[in-house]
Amino acid sequence: MNAPAVAAANAGAHAEQILAWLGEVPDPEIPVISIVDLGIVRGVRVAADGGCDVTITPTYSGCPAMQVIADAITDALHARGVATVRLHNQLSPAWTTDWMSEAGKAALRGYGIAPPARQVIDTSGLRAGGAALAAVSRRAAPAAPRVACPRCGSTHTEITSQFGSTPCKALYKCLDCREPFDYFKCH
Q1: Domain residues for 129?
Q2: Taking the model in full, what pTM does it have?
């Protein structure tokens, strides 16, 4: 996961504290994972005027939850005394499931949702030192991932539908324990 850029300032709360507060804000569609662990929060900066700038990236273009997330960020920071909250939407680079934290993936698994089964960005071809994000190549359409059942751990699973309860999930079933489950698709 790309850790959010954190720059502390002298006025008001420090960016690290604000990031911790935002780590308590759940994703509205999957409340077991925070917006920080999901990788939506890209940056936190405390400005000289004491205001807070938060940069967020939607999980996909047109995500219907972004306004709810923006409101939750503003409400959480106002509740903790941050008077001025400025939200910035950053669309490039596009969000990827690679930005999810390991804690977030574990929370998904514990909730019964299989986390992404592979990394999306292929970093094997990057030049040593100073490689730009533009140099990152995406893998050519790989075979379907081996998705482990979040209930029994078996990889003897199969896809039932490319579309699950939200656009970012697919529906799978375990052929061992026979239970259906959501899989958070790699993006």
Answers
A1: 112-184
A2: 0.77
